[in-house]
Every structure is written in C-alpha cells, then in structure tokens.
Design a protein that fits this description.
Layout lengths: L4 H11 L2 E3 L9 E4 L2 H7 L5 E2 L6 H6 L1 H4 L1 H24 L3 E2 H6 L2 H12 L4 H4 L2 H26 L1 H9 L4 H11 L5 E6 L3 E3 L2 E3 L4 E5 H4 L34 H18 L3 E3 L22 E4 L2
Parallel strand pairs: 2-8
Antiparallel strand pairs: 1-2, 3-5, 4-10, 5-8, 6-7, 9-10
Helix pairs in contact: 5-7, 5-13, 7-9, 9-11, 9-13, 11-13
Length: 298
C-alpha cells in the first residue's frame, strides 16, 4: 500500500469483501469494507453514522464559501500565488515540490478566503477556520500526486499542453486513483449486516473507496490514468449527504495548479532513483506523498 496502491487494494479485495484487522486490540471494533457493492451500498446509509467536523447549523454559514461561483473566485485569486510558487521553484533548479510548492497552498487558500470574505470573521477565527485550514492542508497534500504524475511523464504533460481541455479529466483521474481520503469512516448505530458479516452497534466501519475505484469492474476502473474518454464517476469526494461540500474548490484549485505547472515547469522531472512512497499503515486517514524531489530534465 505504501509503494503500490494498485497491488495493495487488489490483495485486499481478494481477501474481502469485509476484513477485520488481525493485529492490535486497538482495531478490535474495526472492519474494512473493500467490495464494490458493499462500499457503495453503505456510503450514504442512514443506519451508519459519521463524525462531522462541524454541526449542521455551522455548515449553513458556509453556503457562500461552498457555492460554485465562490470556487471560481478562489481559484482565480489563487492563480498568481501558484504561478509565483512554481516560478520560484523552477528558478531554484528544482527541489522538494511538496515543501516548496504544495505545502504553501494551505496558507495561501486560507488567506484567499479571508480576503474574499467568504466566511464571517468570527467563524474564520473559530472552529470553522480550523476545519477549513485542515481541509486546505489535505488538498495541498493531495496536490503532490498531480505534480508527481506530470513530472514522471513528459508525454502526458505535452498532451495536456496541446489539449488543455483534458486537464479537467486529468484532475478527476488523479482524484480517482489517489483519493485524498481513501477510506470513509462510518459507525454502526444498531446491529446490521454488511457483506454477509453481522456487525453490532458501535463498530467502526471503514469504507475503502480506494479499493473500489481500481477494481477493474469496467474499462476505466483500472490502475492506470484514463484520459481522453468520457468522464468517469468516482467517490473520492464522497456521495449524497456525505459528499465533500468543498468539492468545487478542490477541483478548481487543482485545475489552476496543473495549468500553471504545465506552463512553467514542463521541463522538470523526477530526481533519478526516486521511489514514491506514502505513509502506510497511516496514522491518519489522509494518504499523501511526504516528499517529491524534482530536478530539470537533461
């Protein structure tokens, strides 16, 4: 799972559709759901509870922030920062793109939202601001996967430069293959059966969307980037009442980052010998590259 999510999820599906952790007592009340039918049937099941970062009343205040127009405004205001970060990185001859390009996105987006006044000040400085900052941090971490794909494939970068209309598909494909949160936490509130396994109340149910989106159930649910065909549905930003309300911002910001990278860092590639590895077993629900060393191609 650390170096080959395709193989890792394949092994999990072969052992599934519902797995229990065989090790530490800490996981005694946890199950991991990896089968497609079982995951999708329970993503928005009312019998399963989910921990929300903010109560519903607070989310009403975020309606302006979550609106599609606001996402366009945030992306437009973010574009000069993205350009400056990339230009500085290229001028320095490369380096660690996570530290120098994607990590600063967190504070940049927070500043943009503050400047555009998309959240009331009292909320931005309170719990809402903390939750939004963490969401920006997850987005910045995920952005490294997009830069990795561009850096390792000059042919892909050239194609997207020639056909910029495909950038949106590229963003969706990386979201599918490397979801920011590959497992969705749910909790049983009553006894229920998932994938033929009887679960009591109080169980932690991990719905592994990362396994579903690579399961080979159709020509596009593969371990490879599929670009140039129709857009393919994925669940990396949740579903139904459990969808990511900031999904519009995620997509627009990633699109801008990719556009600016293609125009300014097309000659940058992976440092020879670099082998990407995410932290696994994860200490948190987010999967991301901790480093991305890049250098000009020779």
């Amino acid at each position: 799972m650390s170096t080959d999510r395709g193989l890792g999820w394949r092994l999990a599906r072969q052992a599934g559709p519902v797995l229990r952790h065989p090790g530490a007592d800490w996981f005694e009340n946890w199950v991991f759901v990896v089968g497609r039918d079982e995951v999708l049937a329970n993503l928005d099941d009312a019998r399963l509870d989910s921990t929300r970062a903010l109560p519903e009343d607070d989310l009403q205040v975020h309606q302006q922030l979550f609106a599609p127009k606001s996402a366009h405004d945030v992306a437009a205001a973010f574009r000069p920062t993205a350009a400056a970060l990339i230009d500085r990185f290229v001028a320095a001859g490369g380096g660690d793109a996570v530290a120098d390009v994607t990590t600063p996105i967190t504070s940049a987006l927070f500043d943009v939202v503050s400047r555009l006044q998309l959240l009331p000040v009292e909320h931005l400085n309170g719990r809402s601001g903390q939750v939004f900052s963490e969401a920006c941090r997850n987005l910045s971490r995920h952005a490294g996967s997009h830069l990795f794909e561009l850096a390792r494939s000059p042919e892909l970068s050239d194609m997207l430069r020639r056909q910029p209309e495909l950038i949106r598909e590229f963003v969706e494909e990386v979201l599918r293959l490397e979801p920011m949160v590959p497992t969705c936490h749910r909790f049983t509130t009553r006894p229920m059966t998932v994938g033929g396994v009887e679960l009591p109340a109080g169980m932690v149910v991990m719905l592994c969307i990362g396994a579903v989106q690579r399961d080979g159930s159709d020509a596009m649910s593969t371990d490879d980037l599929v670009i140039g065909a129709r857009a393919h549905r994925h669940w990396s930003l949740g579903a139904g009442s459990m969808r990511c309300r900031g999904g519009h911002i995620v997509r627009q910001v990633l699109r801008v980052l990719v556009e600016e990278w293609l125009g300014r860092a097309g000659h940058v590639g992976l440092l020879p010998g670099f082998r990407p590895a995410v932290g696994f077993p994860a200490t948190q629900s987010v999967s991301w590259l901790p480093a991305l060393p890049l250098t000009p191609r020779t």
